[in-house]
Amino acid sequence: MRLAGRSAIVTGAESGIGKAIAFAFAAEGASVAIDYPGAPARANEVIRAIEARGGRAIAVKADVTQPRDVERLVEKAEAAFGPLRVIVNNAGIEEKHPFLETPLDVFLRIVEVNLAGVWICSQAAARAMARHGGGRIINISSIHEDITMPTNAAYCAAKGGVRMLARTIAVELAPYGITVNNVCPGAVETPMDASIEERPNALHELLDEIPLRRMASPEEVAELCVYLASDAAAYVTGSSYVIDGGMMRKSGSL
Known about the structure:
CATH architecture: 3-Layer(aba) Sandwich
Helix content: 40-55%
Radius of gyration: 17 Å
Mean pLDDT: 95
Number of helices: 9
CATH class: Alpha Beta
CATH topology: Rossmann fold
Structural class: alpha/beta
Number of domains: 1
Shape: globular
């Protein structure tokens, strides 16, 4: 097992990509703490599913934009499973509006969750990891840390911030044995992209932009996260790993 004995946190793991990551980590031997911001029902379903497969997991109510909540999340993960070794910053939101019509409160909320939340969780996790000799920070970013998406400027701005945050703290945290990397999916079969699948014309247009002619599965994204959390990626830090079926290459992005 590639993650045997590791204690991990996966934020936003009650559905979609985060859920797949929690399952993949547990299957590889990690003990997993997941956070949920509201009602516990879906998070508890994930925990029960992991335990049914012989894994170890707990759910902790935590808002990633609240430092005290995140500190408590780290404390509970370590109390249950020992020194924190991996965090996956997966929690995120998206809300599309034309730029000229985007309310300021929408922009601030998206940046708060998608960028400030990554900062807060990474800082709390890194402080714990530094005390214990190192660890792995993995951010679920997006191809939109590099390429534009009209009507989604707030989301793109936040993900661009995650790119530079990861690159900068990777340098700062390297002396502590902590690596920092981004995973950048394109279109993934998750609730966030469900509306596209319900509109055949929109789905056809999307697939025309993907050389492999399909969306990724959450499990494919999870497998990349397993690699970055494993010993095989011990010398990998400060990088963004694109998993998009060739979408960025077709767009002409560097």
